[in-house]
Amino acid sequence: MLNLILFGPPGSGKGTQSERIIGKYSLVHISTGDLLREEVASQTELGLKAKEIMDRGALVPDGIVIGMIRKKLEEHKGGRGFIFDGFPRTVEQARELDRALSDYSEEVSVMISLEVPRQELVKRLLNRGKETGRSDDNLETINNRIDVYEQQTLPVAHYYDQMRKYEPVDGVGSIDAIFKRIVKVIDGVK
Ligand code: AMP
User: Fold this and answer.
1) Of these residues, 124, 134, 165, 181, which one is catalytic?
2) Fewest CB atoms within 10 Å of the CB: 70, 75, 84, 124?
3) How does pLDDT run across 152-169, given as a tens digit for each residue?
């Protein structure tokens, strides 16, 4: 199986590039942000709890996110592989992902990290907020989300770097140009 982590700050293009990657490599896309937004839209107990946290730009507790991931792994085991988008966001989540994959004798193949400067992220997210009305795409929450990324999520890059699985990719440019850079990395690990 090919198990990719698409890593990067909010607004770095993980969702957009995930769609392209799934099309080319037939992987199952797991976005914890999308899964949480589905819970919010369905007004489940979990969704009601998550909404308040997401609107602040903070992280939902590790246990909740890991539970969602384990369920998806079980549903899609035996496929071509997974693309994890917006997960893991803490070192604890990364450790749990490794444990969960090892239950299926699998492991993370590579972490592709989209590198985009902060001012470009803010610009993209404000635009998305205008276009989609996503409630956490307002200036205050955007800044919180980027701060949370720098403080709690960046250590995850170091975690995979120690295992020689960390591959930075320039995330500025056209969607096509960035996709080509990603394909080069994926084809190098396959
Ligand atoms: P995203 O769509 O990936 O930008 O995620 C939107 C929001 O969902 C984040 O700001 C967090 O509040 C929450 N979230 C998504 N993925 C995770 C995760 N792996 N761990 C904790 N919280 C998450």
Assistant:
1) 134
2) 75
3) 999 999 999 999 999 999
